[in-house]
Structure formats: structure tokens, C-alpha cells
Design brief:
The protein has 472 residues and is α/β, with parallel strands linked by helices. 21% of the residues lie in helices and 24% in strands. α4 runs parallel beside α5 and α6 runs parallel beside α7. β4, α7 and β5 form a beta-alpha-beta unit. The strands form 3 sheets. Strands 1-2-3-4-5-6-9-10 form an 8-stranded parallel barrel. Strands 11, 12, 13, 14, 15 and 16 form a 6-stranded antiparallel sheet that branches. The protein contains 10 helices and 16 strands.
């Protein structure tokens, strides 16, 4: 998928097939990004060595001295866990740069690591390329070390120079991650960030890169760091609700969680959370790493709710992922495989629908081709598909996907089983989007029905799947 992102058309390019033009759709780039499902955050800086979450900006660069930094180990662990991209904290709020920048001495150049000749960003990028993983960067706009922070254009120029180095010297980048962190600098002042100039710089230097922040413009924060997207989650938003990164009002969290079914722009959610209680490595948290089962819960509450999971895994002071983190990532992949290993149990069912548009019959929902889908005859805003077998099947997991390249339209859905002479609901929900996952106690049935109760435009379902999970 990293290759698909790198070669995607520019962000303004749109897929114009079959959808109502009044409703937003993803660019091919946004579509590829969301279908990756899993990305990894890597928090690493002087904080790793001072045992802190936020640095003060006064740290001596000589504290940064990983004894065995191995970015290939990070990339291999990510790939084994099924992750497709990694995002590195090239600079956190402390201002320490993980590459030998020309903008400040507060960087790896002033550390003893690799004799002052090291470049964490370079090693990170080369490791990702070797494993065919996408590369992303986080460059904190808040800099607690830089004296020019809070000075206006002088700091803007400084920050743009750093961003330019990262986006010019390390090859293709798939995501540039921003937040609205905006505390005081060493002079006690705050900086008013020039977001239009920042975004323009990314577009000029990395036109294929997705830009993330709580205000987009391409991707949005999901509104919390717990790993939980809204049970209702639209990929569209009203950009006026969160006009700039760091914007804060009582409704912002809810707006980011849910999106907006009438939103004017496509801005899918990214759900960030750490595998540990903190974002940086702390020895005291080595026994508090999320288990594989805990990671599965995150998968269902993020990817399973139409968002992408960005899971942070912090390297230790040695510069390697801890053995527990690595093992749990691999087990996480194994448990996901066990859920879906038996294949879609609906395949082979006799199927009929309330209606079908030409070339979009109901059997497309279990043929495994994401480019094909069932669509009821226009202008329907509701519809149903029934599945029937010669004998009952048993299942405990439901997976639905909309053909979101044509927009996200489904607002309510229901799945029923025929029992005792009537339909009985075992799963109900609101939005579907890129993926909707539901778990429940095992159900055994011979006749089943998916009903779209309401959609904002004619719905297009690319997949309806039932699975019986197995012990991993």
C-alpha cells in the first residue's frame, strides 16, 4: 500500500463514477490511506532518556545516546503486526531534532550518538523503504527550546526551514502529522502558527502526502487519545466546525468523533493511541503494555468504526522496541488472522435483494472484489439483501464495507436472523463507511437479512461478511 500511496494522483483528483456529485468522495490518495487500516507512531527523543513525556527544551543533547538503535527492528515489528506506514517524531515539543538540521545545534549533531554523525530520520526512512512501508513525519510546531518561538515571522521562517529539510531530503512521504500544540516558548510567548504557509510548503514539496491535524485538511484527529472512534463516524466534516489546528470549543470533540453526514469535505478520521500508558518509553511501564486482546479491542473501536488506527510504539533507551511490545504486536496480527481465517461464511448463499441497479447485483457483496458492489435501483435510500443456506451457519463477527470511492451514504443499518417465524435483530448500527465491524455472542441461523434503513444517497455496499472467530 505504501507504493499505492506514493503513486496516487494529487489530493484534488476525484473519482467521478456513479456517485451523486453533491456528496463528497475521497481522492484516490485518501482512499488508499484509509484502506491501509493500520499505521504506527514512533515517539523517540531526549524524553526517552530523561524519563519524561514533555521535555522542557533545556535538555543537554548529550543525554541522547541510544546504545543499539535499530530502525530495521522497528520496521520489521511493524510489518509483522500488519502495519503499513510509520510516523516518526522528528521533533517533539522539546525542540530536539532527530536529524542533523542546519537550523539549530539542538539536534543529534550535538549528541554523542554515532559520534555526532548520526541521523535517526535517515535510518528510519531507510528501514521503512527496506520493508516497503510508508514514511511519515511529525514536526511539532511548539518548540520549547528555540528563542525565536513566539516572535512571529522569524519563527515561521525557522519552522518552514525545518519542514523543508524533512520534505526535501528523505524521499517520498505519505503523511505529515501536525497538532495544535501551542504552549509558551523559552521567552514566555506563544506563536500564532501560519498554517496556510505550512500546508502550502507540504503541497509544494510532497504533493502526494496526506496532511493530518484536528482541522485537516486531508485527515482529521478522532478527538481523543483512547483509540476510540465514534460509534457513528462519517468521513465528511463541516470545515467551519474546526477551522484550524488547536481550535477548542465544547463541541469540538463530538464533531471530530462523529463527522457530519452533510459535511462539505471528505476528511476521514485517524485514531491515535499508545501501546503503553505513555507516549515515550518508561521502564516503569514495561509491565503495562497492551495485550494482543487489548489491541484487538482497539482495532474494533477504530478500524471497525470507519477510521484508521495509529498505534504508538516507543523505542527504549537502547533504540529498539521492547520485547514485550514486539511480541504483542505479532500476537495482535495472529488474532486478527484467526478472526477472519475461515473466510466469509456468506459466500455461496442464495441471495436476493429489494432491488438492484444495472451491473450492481447483490452477489457482488461476497465476491471479494472491492471494485464491485450491490446498489439498489436509484433513487432508493433504503434496501435489503437476504441470504439463505441449505443448513444453518454459525458466526460471531460481522464486517460491512461501503464502496466509499463513490461516497459514504449509509446512516442506519440492521442485520436480522429468521427465527421462530419472524426476523430477530442481532446487530444494529449507524454508519458503515470504509469498514464496520461488530462482535457478538455466536449466532446460528439459516436465513439472514441485511437492511439499509436509511441512506443519504443510493447506498453502495461492496462487502457483507460473517465470520466465526477461532482461538489464536
Amino acid at each position: 500500500m505504501a507504493d499505492a500511496l506514493a503513486g496516487a494522483p494529487a489530493p484534488h483528483a476525484r473519482n467521478d463514477a456513479d456517485a451523486a456529485p453533491s456528496r463528497p468522495r475521497p481522492s484516490p490518495q485518501q482512499l488508499a490511506w484509509q484502506r491501509e487500516e493500520l499505521a504506527m507512531f514512533v515517539h523517540f527523543t531526549v524524553n526517552t532518556f530523561t524519563d519524561r513525556e514533555w521535555g522542557e527544551g533545556t535538555e543537554d543533547p548529550r543525554v541522547f545516546d541510544p546504545s543499539g538503535l535499530d530502525a530495521r527492528q522497528w520496521a520489521r515489528a511493524a510489518k509483522a503486526g500488519g502495519f503499513r506506514s510509520l510516523i516518526l517524531t522528528a521533533k517533539h515539543h522539546d525542540g530536539f531534532c532527530l536529524w542533523p538540521t542546519a537550523t539549530t545545534k539542538h539536534s543529534v549533531r550535538s549528541s554523542p550518538w554515532r559520534g555526532g554523525q548520526g541521523d535517526v530520520v535517515r535510518e528510519f526512512v531507510e528501514a521503512c523503504r527496506a520493508e516497503n512501508l510508508g514514511v511519515g513525519f511529525y514536526l511539532s510546531p511548539w518548540d520549547r527550546h528555540e528563542p525565536r518561538y513566539g516572535s512571529g515571522k522569524a519563527y515561521d521562517d525557522f519552522y518552514i526551514a525545518q519542514l523543508t529539510e524533512l520534505l526535501s531530503n528523505y524521499g517520498p512521504v505519505v503523511e505529515v502529522w501536525f497538532d495544535g500544540a501551542n504552549g509558551e516558548g523559552p521567552n514566555g510567548k506563544r506563536q500564532a502558527y501560519d498554517w496556510p504557509r505550512i500546508h502550502r510548503t507540504v503541497r509544494e514539496l510532497q504533493p502526494q502526502a496526506m496532511i493530518f491535524s484536528d482541522a485537516g485538511p486531508d485527515l482529521r484527529w478522532i478527538g481523543n487519545e483512547r483509540g476510540v472512534a465514534g460509534s457513528t463516524c462519517w468521513s465528511m466534516v463541516d470545515p467551519a466546525r474546526v477551522p484550524h489546528a488547536g481550535f477548542d470549543r465544547p463541541w469540538v470533540g463530538e464533531a471530530l468523533q462523529q463527522g457530519d453526514p452533510q459535511g462539505a469535505v471528505w476528511r476521514p478520521g485517524e485514531t491515535d493511541v499508545s501501546i503503553r500508558p505513555g507516549w515515550f518509553w518508561h521502564a516503569a511501564e514495561d509491565a503495562k503494555v497492551r495485550s494482543a486482546d487489548g489491541l484487538i479491542d482497539l482495532y474494533f473501536s477504530s478500524v471497525g468504526r470507519n477510521s484508521k488506527l495509529l498505534l504508538n510504539v516507543p523505542p527504549t533507551r537502547a533504540g529498539r522496541f521492547h520485547d514485550t511490545d514486539v511480541a504483542n504486536l505479532a500476537q495482535f496480527a495472529g488474532k486478527r488472522e484467526a478472526i477472519f481465517a475461515g473466510g466469509n461464511l456468506l459466500a455461496g448463499a442464495r441471495v436476493r435483494a429489494s432491488s438492484s441497479a444495472d451491473a450492481h447485483p447483490p452477489a457482488h457483496v461476497f465476491d471479494g472484489d472491492p471494485q464491485r458492489f450491490w446498489m439498489p435501483a436509484a433513487p432508493a435510500r433504503t434496501g435489503w439483501i437476504e441470504f439463505e443456506f441449505d443448513r444453518p451457519i454459525e458466526f460471531d463477527t460481522l464486517c460491512l464495507t461501503e464502496a466509499i470511492e463513490h461516497g459514504q451514504h449509509i446512516a442506519n443499518h440492521r442485520f436480522d436472523a429468521w427465527r421462530d417465524g419472524r426476523w430477530r435483530t442481532f446487530a444494529w448500527g449507524t454508519t458503515v463507511g470504509c469498514k464496520r465491524l461488530e462482535r457478538f455472542d455466536p449466532v446460528r441461523a439459516q436465513r439472514l437479512r441485511l437492511e439499509v434503513e436509511f441512506a443519504y444517497a443510493t447506498p453502495a455496499l461492496s462487502s457483507v461478511a460473517l465470520y466465526r472467530s477461532r482461538p489464536a
